[in-house]
Specification:
The complex is a heterodimer of chains A (545) and B (241).
Chain A (H helix, E strand, L loop, with lengths): L33 E3 L2 E11 L6 E6 L5 E7 L3 E8 L8 E3 L23 E7 L4 E6 L11 E7 L10 E11 L3 H10 L11 H11 L1 H14 L14 E5 L8 E4 L6 E7 L6 E4 L5 E6 L2 E8 L1 E4 L4 E6 L7 E7 L5 E7 L90 E10 L4 E4 L10 E3 L4 E8 L5 E5 L4 E3 L9 E2 L1 E4 L4 E7 L4 E7 L2 H5 L3 E6 L1
Parallel strand pairs in A: 1-4, 2-5, 4-9, 10-13, 12-20, 21-24, 23-31
Antiparallel strand pairs in A: 2-3, 5-7, 6-8, 8-9, 10-11, 13-18, 14-17, 14-19, 15-16, 15-18, 19-20, 21-22, 24-29, 25-28, 25-30, 26-27, 26-29, 30-31
Chain B lengths: L1 H11 L22 E13 L5 E11 L3 E12 L4 E13 L4 E10 L6 E12 L3 E10 L4 E8 L2 E2 L4 E12 L11 E13 L5 E12 L1 H9 L5 E12 L1
Antiparallel strand pairs in B: 1-2, 1-13, 2-3, 3-4, 4-5, 5-6, 6-7, 7-8, 8-10, 9-10, 10-11, 11-12, 12-13
Classes of the chains: A mainly beta (545), B mainly beta (241).
Chain lengths: 545, 241
Amino acid sequence: MASLIPRRRFIQTAGAVASFPAPVLAMPSASPTLLRGTDFALEIGTIPVNFTGQQRRATVVNGQLPAPILRWREGDTVTLAVTNRLAEPTSIHWHGIRTPSNMDGVPGLSFPGIAPGESFIYRFPVPQSGTYWYHSHSGMQEQLGLYGALIVDPRDGYVQRFDRDYVVLLSDWTDERPKTIVSNLKFQADYYNFGQRTAGDFLADTRRMGLGAAVADRLAWGEMRMAPTDILDVSGATYTYLLNGFTPAANWTALFRPGEHVRLRFINASAMSIFDVRIPGLTMTVVQADGNDVQPVPVDAFRIGTAETYDVIVTPAEDRAYAIFAQAEDRSGHAFGTLAPRVGMAAPIPPMDPRPLRTMGDMGMDHSGHGTHAVPAGPSGLGVAVDNVVSIPAERLDEPGAGLEQAERRALRYSDLRALRPGIDPRPPGRDIVLRLTGNMHRFIWGFDGRKYSEAKPIDLRLNERVRFVVINDTMMEHPIHLHGLWSELDNGQDAFRPYKHTVLVKPAERIAWLVTADLPGRWAFHCHLLYHMETGMFREVRVS
Amino acid sequence: MRTLAICCLLSSLGAPTLAQTQADHTGHDMDPGIQFHGILDQFEARIGGGANAFRWEGQAWIGTDTDKLWFKSEGFALGKGGVEDGRHEILYNRAISTWFDVQAGVRTDLDSGTSRHWAALGVRGLLPHFFELEATAYASDNGHFAARLGLSYDVRLTQRWVLQPEIDLNVYSKTDPGRHVGSGLASLDAGVRLRYEISRKFAPYVGVTYSGRYGQTARFARQESEAATAVQVVFGIRSWF
């Protein structure tokens, strides 16, 4: 094992606002390399990998899966020469970074893409700090390994105090080709669901709730032609979940000395997975969400949607190994790593929680309970592309999400997120843009307002306009909705201290809103970050002019 | 080349070209475009009832989310070398609602008997409570009408063991001695198959089937010294791509 970079110690400044320089990013062996500075050369090619016993080819940056960690500094202008060594076009999108639109890396919107054998020079100033990531926006290469962590150190030092700094990048590897996954889902949408309700479950429910109730429950779901076990469309049946590119068996390990403050930068770089993260025995203090500092929130667990990032600080006091445990929302598998005082230690892998089940509330049919707004039906109504229209969407900001309601654990809620600094644009929104997240699970068609990208017109915003996106989820699944280029200020009751996010995980049957200042002109992508939802239509162009 | 021909056919049938509204998008279209799938639902030996037989029933389709070209084929290969109840269809399939598609095209009865040609118009989809439905009406070139109804259901015993009851009915408006079918309810094929999904796409199965011929159709069968009804044990493979 390679030795660790020596720990740097800090002296707290005496000023009223303490700020701390960044500790050296601690690197256990075989983690992705760290590239820092302002000039980078990135080469996209393929390498052989073997995560499952089968050799496959991954699409990667500089021969590494995950891609190298890029470390920039707020205010610098960075230059990245990206060369395509593939036989197909490629691109890199700097997820959450506020670049000019022609540097955002979405083929067809920002630029034509990078043709085989060609290079593209990205150059832009970095106006922000925080934990982000970068990935391909071409040809489902994200699924094939083209993703990496991106850290921007604040120019004026860190608000939080920490001694160690680790990236924890979660992803999902499959030996199948992405096109095969799309084809399988088109043929049979529950292809990867091996947690379906069976005759045995019916008998168990009969014993638990009585025959009448069990039959009524089956009839209610059957009437809608929906399955309450529909949690994630692609599961551990094909995925091997990776933590910094390590399988659970390979046990990626981060070192600490008892009593140290360890910053863990969680990045969900998966294609289709929502993870529930915990470190049994440790309270995690959430200090940043999607690259933006928040008032510290101590939690036992948090859900991280695809493309979200959360920075947490933990302070392991004991001289023992701790498990970093990220179970997929459908409990079909997990990513795993270890926090340990010495190399070679492994914490026991915690048992998986029970699989959550969808409820009638997730179909927008629960008329009791949470605060509700009746809303008009969507513009599309039911149809080929829409299998459900929520009539009474729910306010769910105060819910941690399906499967995280255990009383003994405090799980993060969106309502907990309060920005450390007030927002920069105090104007109220001039108008609402109401969008419904729609889908037909059976046909595996996804979209906004019942339309696929190929059938839809762009959403037009005026430059510097302030608008509210109101999103109603007509589907029974979570969707991580990512707006490129512009911040999404989550309207979660924190008023001026709304958290700035780039990706908002929208719960089933939820009505959620965020404010947007259209301060960067150009053509921006707006889409569900579940790769196969995006690829089957849940994508829009937002045009700012 | 063949795919190209099919694409041209789909366009001529009125399928929208991809990315009409985002023609300047040089990336991909966030639309899976044309998909090609096929399934051999029944590919089985039927044993007992006095006449062993080999049975196939399959479908394939190619096209977009809304517009597809659809192929169906079924029949029995009998021990003595003949083929019976050979039905083959080419249909245009259009998605019309959340759960249902309409299908229109042609059917050819092509086997050891006299050939017949039909125009076909039908509906396929998923009924409440997860019943798979296929219902088609036919009009033949000699003024006969026919209807076919298929229903099936999957009972998931475990994540990989699936019990599938299924029934097919055939009704004809007039007797057709050339094909040994009588008017009214001519035949019924029902079965219960227990399959084990080694993978989703490959599942061996065993089962029991009942096939019955009624009325004039039964009399035609008895004239051929065949039983009008048969209960048989089946084993086969269900596979798809």
